């Protein structure tokens, strides 16, 4: 196994020790942090392959750590740990740029499967960077700059997460086509994604806030009920 360095931020010492022992036994290099502030200090000094963040931590929450990481690094995969039933945590985490979440309590096999899937998606995304599409392209009434992870609509400029950019590119490459949720999840999250379609729907909702004149009544990325979504490309772009 290539050297994969994982940062684990978890304030519960028993869970933290268990995660470290489990992942080290699988051949991963693991650095633990007991709170969000220590996690950011370690992140700024090391090159990690994956970040695992508990949401409720002293000093800085998992939300804050994820937000700060995404300000400087859009590519490193982030998995968030959330308590059972805290749906809002999952939604907010995904909005901040997390790649996946695991609900506590979780089993070792689920943890390892999700880590493996996220790392495979990350490696595939890195490998296809040069062939993923143009660096700049028009999308609806907006201009997308893939190199800067930004989109400009009129006088407004919006930052894009890596998943939002991948979604825009996939829609751009399939104008006018009805794309099922499974197609979109497979294209952007990978065929081994273990989450639900709610992840996709939340990302679409965030994109609509940036590209639609009226996000509640979208006319650029429209919903095809019971199937998925369609990019309503302007005629001159088809």
User: Unreliable runs, pLDDT <50, ≥5 residues?
Assistant: 127-131
Which term fits the overall shape? elongated
Q: Give the amount of beta strand, in percent.
A: 15-25%
- Give helix and strand order, one letter per element, not per position: EHEHEHEHEHEEEEHEHHEE
CATH architecture label name of the largest domain: 3-Layer(aba) Sandwich
- CATH class descriptor name of the largest domain: Alpha Beta
Describe the main β-sheet briefly.
Answer: 5 strands, parallel
User: What count of domains describes the coordinates?
Assistant: 2
Through-space gap between termini = 44 Å
Strand order of the largest sheet: 2-1-3-4-5
CATH homologous superfamily heading of the largest domain: Response regulator
What labels describe this entry?
238 residues, alpha/beta, Rossmann fold, Arc Repressor Mutant, subunit A, 2 domains, five-stranded parallel beta sheet, four-stranded antiparallel beta sheet, 12 strands, 41% helix, 22% strand
Provide structural commentary.
The chain is an alpha/beta fold. It folds into two domains: 5-127, Response regulator (Rossmann fold); 131-237, Arc Repressor Mutant, subunit A (Orthogonal Bundle), CATH 1.10.10. Helices cover 41% and strands 22% of the residues. It has eight helices and twelve strands. The strands form three sheets. A five-stranded parallel beta sheet has the order 2-1-3-4-5, sandwiched between helices. A four-stranded antiparallel beta sheet has the order 6-7-8-9, with no helix packed on it. Strand 6 and strand 7 form a beta hairpin. It is elongated, with a radius of gyration of 18 Å.
